[in-house]
Design brief:
Blueprint (H helix, E strand, L loop, with lengths): L6 E2 L5 E4 L9 E2 L12 E12 L9 E11 L7 E2 L8 H4 L9 H28 L24 H4 L4 E3 L4 E6 L2 E6 L3 E9 L2 E8 L23 E7 L12 H28 L17 E5 L12 E4 L7
Antiparallel strand pairs: 1-4, 2-3, 2-4, 4-5, 5-6, 7-8, 8-9, 10-11, 11-12, 13-14
Subcellular location: Nucleus; Chromosome
Keywords: Chromosome, DNA damage, DNA repair, DNA replication, Nucleus, Transcription, Transcription regulation
GO molecular function: nucleosome binding
């Protein structure tokens, strides 16, 4: 390969892979100081663009190339290549993209577009015949953290304890050794009980099929996998050297979840009440001295103990 006929397009040629295909915390680059550990899996790849094929002509003269392998880190030996036994012939790993569509493909694509437009026109005609169709309300999908970098770095999370993030209204639960965030809107109710030397904390979640009010709407992705409930158990016995019993984490989590739930539900109720309010224009004051007035008025129920009389005056587009 002639270096003068190509250019490298990548800044990071190696990145870790695991729960997510590309782990942002395991990018191998000049600014990353993270130490690779045994058992971690990395994707090693190399990509080039603007390669020149001297034997081709036209648009196929210039092409791109992207190759890669998946490796796992060992303790002392060299990394194991997981894709060593995979097929490497060009017909097995190569992907060829066509730059132009054939006449038959264009015709099929045009037929699909015509079918979609025809169906939409038919739906509009049926909607006009049946009257105004009510739109189905979809339950608001709330995202706790847009990326893993926004998650808090509290010691409770690294110790795999329950942590309540009051700023983002999120409960971080340890599941299978990993901290998993759940927004407070997904928690239906919680309960706590003490049986013998153990404290139990049970959390029930909203899920498709559960009893949800009509005003809450449907789930945005009802076919996904949902967690219905989860129970944590912790001992009430304090070991020598410990400042508090392990169950104190469940007690604190129970109290904070209740507080965040109450705050969230209060705000949601206020937003629903504001949905029915009509937005009014700015009041235009009328300088006419003969404006209609109602005197000696007071508010019921009384806001303060002492009743205060007032006056209601009509202006150009409202009252004051």
């Amino acid at each position: 390969m002639d270096k003068r006929t190509c250019k490298e397009d990548q800044d990071e040629a190696v990145f870790g892979t695991g729960i997510e295909f590309r782990e942002s915390a395991l990018l191998i680059g000049p600014k990353n100081t993270t130490v690779a550990k045994k058992g971690q899996v990395f994707n090693v790849n190399l990509g080039f663009s603007d390669l020149i094929n001297p034997d081709a002509s036209g648009s196929s003269k210039k092409y791109a190339l992207f190759i890669g392998d998946t490796v796992v880190v060992n303790e002392e030996q060299a990394a194991t290549i997981l894709t060593a036994t995979s097929k490497k012939k060009l017909r097995n790993v190569g992907v060829f993209l066509k730059s132009e569509q054939s006449t038959e493909e264009k015709r099929r694509q045009h037929q699909k577009e015509l079918a979609v437009s025809t169906n939409e026109a038919a739906k509009e005609r049926l909607a006009l015949l049946k009257g105004k169709k009510e739109n189905q309300k979809v339950r608001k999908s709330t995202v706790s953290y847009k990326s893993v970098n926004v998650m808090p770095r509290e010691p409770e999370i690294s110790d795999l304890k329950i942590y309540v993030d009051r700023k983002y209204e999120t409960v971080i639960l340890p599941i299978y050794g990993l901290p998993v965030p759940f927004h407070i809107s997904m928690i239906k109710n919680i309960s706590q009980s003490v049986e013998g030397d153990y404290t139990y904390l049970r959390i029930n979640f909203f899920h498709p099929g559960s009893n949800i009010g009509k005003s809450d709407g449907a789930f945005p992705n009802p076919d996904a996998v949902f967690l219905k409930e989860i129970t944590y158990r912790s001992t009430n016995t304090k070991e020598p050297g410990e400042l508090s019993a392990p169950s104190s984490n469940l007690n604190t989590a129970f109290r904070l979840i209740k507080e965040v739930q109450k705050k969230f539900k209060t705000r949601e109720a206020e937003e629903k009440e504001k949905e029915d309010l009509v937005k009014q224009d700015t009041l235009v004051i009328s300088n006419n001295k003969s404006n209609p007035k109602l005197k000696d008025l007071y508010i019921r129920p009384n806001i303060v103990q002492k009743r205060i009389n007032g006056t209601l005056e009509a202006h150009t587009n409202g009252f004051r």
